[in-house]
Amino acid sequence: MAVGGACRTRLRGGSHRAAPVHTDPEEVSVLTALSALADPVRIQLIRELAGGADWTSNCGSFDVPVGKAVFSHHFSVLRGAGLVEQRDQGPRRINRLRREEFDARFPGLLDLALRGDGAD
C-alpha cells in the first residue's frame, strides 16, 4: 500500500506542516538506534532509501502496509535515531538515509541491519 500523502507539507485549507526535527547521530544512544532498526516496516523504509540516491525518494514512493499516521510515526522514529533526514520540496517531503553520519557513530550496525539474511 503506497502512502501518498503521509509526508506532504501542505495540508488541507492551505496550512503547512512544521519542518521535521532531525537528531544528530552523535546524540543517539545505541538503544535508540537498535530500537529504530528493530521494526520490520522501518527496516523496509531504510532498505528502500539505501537502494536509491539521496533526495530522490518522496514519502509517496514507499510501499509499506501501514496507514498515514503510522507511516509518519515510523519516519519520526527514524529521524529521532539519526537515520533519516527529510526536507520539503514543493508540496512533497523528500528523504535521504544519513548513512555516513550513522556509520561514523555506529560502525557496521547499519550494514548488519541491511543484510537482509532473514534475521529480521
TrEMBL record:
Residues 22-117 form the HTH arsR-type domain. InterPro entries: ArsR-like_HTH (IPR011991), HTH_ArsR_DNA-bd_dom (IPR001845), WH-like_DNA-bd_sf (IPR036388), WH_DNA-bd_sf (IPR036390). This is Helix-turn-helix transcriptional regulator. It comes from Streptomyces spongiae. GO terms for molecular function: DNA-binding transcription factor activity.
